[in-house]
């Protein structure tokens, strides 16, 4: 089989993109992850609602953010600014899910083509795409995670300023958007930890795979 460094670069990018978008998609798609926080954070006592209503509010909000047509928060009222922020969130969530689907599809197509055309990855500096995807993505997010751990509140603000530039509708007034009560900052911190854990775990697997099974590189 002929070897190609371009193929190595393509697999590096695709592996990193699949891992990144997949890790971000985990807390978006795995609703039991949120449900586990209801008891863990004593939300029923803190919010004064039964668990069924908290789940309903969260589910209706997430249904909208993952592609639904109508924004709703169960029995909780919401303001136009609150709905506008979740419309922005919806765009980011759908972008991630679309990128995940596209990158997975591209990986399947590339895998089939390389087999048909009898091409293999050529090592770059002695290592394959798994190593470089894991090293680049893992190193970058380990740094980001370390900085965020120093001051999560500040990191939370910076995140919103970066992804919602020029907007302040993410600063909820609990009197008009009480859904903020069922989305405490501890939950978002744990979402960030889940994403970071999945990313770093995936990066370690990619790097180990490159060292242990070099002949199995794409």
Detailed description of the structure:
The protein is about 70% helix and about 5% strand. The chain has about 220 residues and is mostly helical. It has one domain (about 1-215). A two-stranded parallel sheet has the order 1-2. Helix 1 (about 5-30) packs antiparallel against helix 8 (about 185-210). About 25% of the residues are buried. The mean pLDDT is about 90.
List keywords for this structure.
2 strands; two-stranded parallel sheet; elongated; mainly alpha
Number of strands: 2
Strand order of the main beta sheet, please? 1-2
- Give me the Rg, rounded: 21 Å
Instruction: Give the quaternary arrangement of the chains.
Output: single chain
How is the topology of this model organized?
Elements: E1 2-4, H1 5-29, H2 31-40, H3 43-47, H4 51-65, H5 80-116, E2 119-121, H6 129-150, H7 152-163, H8 185-212
Short description:
This protein has helices at residues 5-29, 31-40, 43-47, 51-65, 80-116, 129-150, 152-163, 185-212, and strands at 2-4, 119-121. With 218 residues, the chain is an all-alpha fold. It has one domain (2-216).
